[in-house]
Design a protein that fits this description.
The protein is mainly beta. It has one domain. Helix content is 11%, strand content 42%. It contains two helices and 17 strands. Strands 1-2-3-15-7-8 form a six-stranded antiparallel β-sheet, with no helix packed on it. The radius of gyration is 18 Å and the shape is globular.
């Protein structure tokens, strides 16, 4: 009886960590893990990332994303968002990356709207494009505050703070890491892609 109970618990745990959702009739998104982010690991695997302040933490949610057609299909990362029922917020990712070469990860390019060449002092760091729709705004939740990061495209003396979103990429099969900056005592939440729940998670 004890062995049967152990087997059922193990199977339930395995099912939780292998939850797969089909989105847009185009992709299978499989949940892998949710952890507190290691800044040291990020320094070694990425050339660009947003860092949390001392009174915050950065968390990493990992998914395996595969096209259902087994061909490269355009993927919209702006449909990812975090819901916190405790804090009543809906948050946009601060970084989204995918596996690239060996242990390195390549970020989805960050986009901004309506910025002039004179304002943009960080053009070498971030790419801007006006033809990509910011679909994050299509999935607002009543009673929840939207949390969005801004980056300073100007200087310290003359800041030009802009909300950033992400460029699309063609994906056949990639490991995708989605990052959020949350309060230090945050330990659970829900990740959605558009209107579809991907995972109700607890941080490992």
């Amino acid at each position: 009886m004890k062995n049967l109970l152990f087997l059922l618990v193990a199977l339930a745990s395995l099912n939780l960590h292998c939850q797969t959702t089909i989105v847009d009739n185009s992709f299978k998104i499989e949940y892998k893990k949710a952890i507190k982010n290691s800044r040291l690991f990020e320094l070694h695997t990425s050339s660009s990332f947003v860092q949390a302040n001392e009174n915050e933490q950065k968390i990493q949610i990992r998914f395996k994303v595969k096209s259902t057609s087994k061909k490269k299909v355009v993927f919209d990362p702006n449909k990812f968002y975090l819901i916190s029922d405790e804090y009543k917020f809906r948050e946009r990712p601060v970084d989204i990356k995918h596996d690239h070469v060996m242990t390195s990860y390549l970020g989805f390019e960050k986009l901004v709207d309506e910025i002039s060449p004179e304002e943009n002092k960080n053009s070498s760091l971030h790419f801007k494009e006006h033809s990509i729709k910011d679909t994050f705004n299509d999935y607002k939740v009543d009673g929840y505050k939207d949390i969005e990061i801004t980056l300073n495209y100007g200087t310290t003396k003359k800041p030009v703070n802009k909300i950033v979103y992400f460029n699309h990429k063609k994906i056949k099969s990639k490991t995708v890491d989605v990052y959020f900056i949350v309060p230090l005592d945050f330990d659970k939440g829900k990740i959605y892609y558009g209107n579809q729940l991907l995972i109700d998670f607890i941080l490992d």
